[in-house]
Structures are given as structure tokens and as C-alpha cells.
Design a protein that fits this description.
RNaseH_sf; mainly alpha; 2 domains; 160 residues; Tc1-like transposase DDE domain-containing protein; nucleic acid binding; 0% strand; 58% helix; flat
Length: 160
């Protein structure tokens, strides 16, 4: 994504693709991809949409945006704590017990947690777009005198 946000917006305008000022660069790139890949759709998405369902695809490599990952982690933790025999039959029983202990209230908390993560990422997206598009430089100045790890220790030999 080396193009500037304003260049992407200009291209979308030329292609008569509607866009909004409040969306981030990544979302603009998705609009660009939609122009290039119009017509490429999965059959299962078409079937789900024909049945009146909204298809939402999660971004790759962002398991923190998927509540089922939190549920699965909870179930695995339950099985790990309960497993004393390491026999497959016992693990199977514990797995089902772990699944049953995931209540509607836990699901609700997991979904709320994911929504909070989405909000944080949305804010960071806008921040990153602003920094990249303004070409703001981050400068870290190292002092000539640096401290060693011995300077930071609390040994009795050092006077404070």
C-alpha cells in the first residue's frame, strides 16, 4: 500500500466508485480490489445472501477479532485443567463438559471484547493513515552517554 490515500481517493472518483472521507486507506484499497475483481464471488456467499444472511469475512491473521477463538481458548483451558488421565475417552468427555460451560453470558462478554478490539484497531487505522500520509518522521536521538545494565541495577555496591 505505497499509494497515498488522496491518490487512491482520486482514482476511485475517476472510476465513479463512491467513497467516504472517514474510511481508512485499507478500506479504500478494498474498494479498489472490488473494482478489479467485480464478479468474483464464492458460491457459499451467494447461497447465504440468497437466504437473507449477511456474509462478513474476518481479516486473515487477526484471531482477536473472532469471538470463537476466545471460546475455543476457554474450552481448551477447561480441558487442560480437568485432564488428569490423558486418556482419549476422558479428554472427549472433558471437551463436551468444557463446551457446555460456555454460557450465553460468556459469549456476550467475548463479543463485547471483540467489539472493543475493533474500536481500538479502527482508531489506530486512522492514526496510522494520518502519520503515513503526512510523511511525519519519527526521530530517536541517542545520547552520547548511555547507561549500562549495571547502572540500572540495585546492587548494594551502588550508592543511590
Amino acid at each position: 500500500m505505497s499509494s497515498l490515500k488522496k491518490d487512491i481517493q482520486a482514482w476511485l472518483s475517476e472510476e465513479r466508485v463512491p467513497w467516504s472521507n472517514d474510511i481508512v486507506k485499507e478500506e479504500l484499497m478494498k474498494l479498489v480490489d472490488n473494482v478489479h475483481a467485480s464478479g468474483d464471488r464464492y458460491r457459499v456467499d451467494c447461497i447465504a445472501e440468497a437466504a437473507g444472511h449477511l456474509v462478513v469475512c474476518l481479516p486473515s491473521y487477526h484471531c482477536q477479532l473472532n469471538p470463537i477463538e476466545l471460546v475455543w481458548s476457554d474450552v481448551k483451558g477447561f480441558v487442560t485443567a480437568a485432564n488428569k488421565t490423558f486418556k482419549l475417552q476422558d479428554v472427549d468427555t472433558q471437551l463436551w463438559q468444557g463446551i457446555k460451560q460456555v454460557t450465553a453470558e460468556k459469549w456476550k462478554r467475548y463479543v463485547e471484547h471483540v467489539i472493543a478490539q475493533e474500536d481500538v484497531m479502527r482508531k489506530l487505522d486512522h492514526f496510522i493513515d494520518d502519520v503515513v500520509d503526512t510523511n511525519a518522521a519519527v526521530v530517536i536521538t541517542l545520547e552520547e552517554e548511555t547507561m549500562s545494565s549495571s547502572d540500572l541495577s540495585c546492587d548494594e555496591d551502588h550508592d543511590m
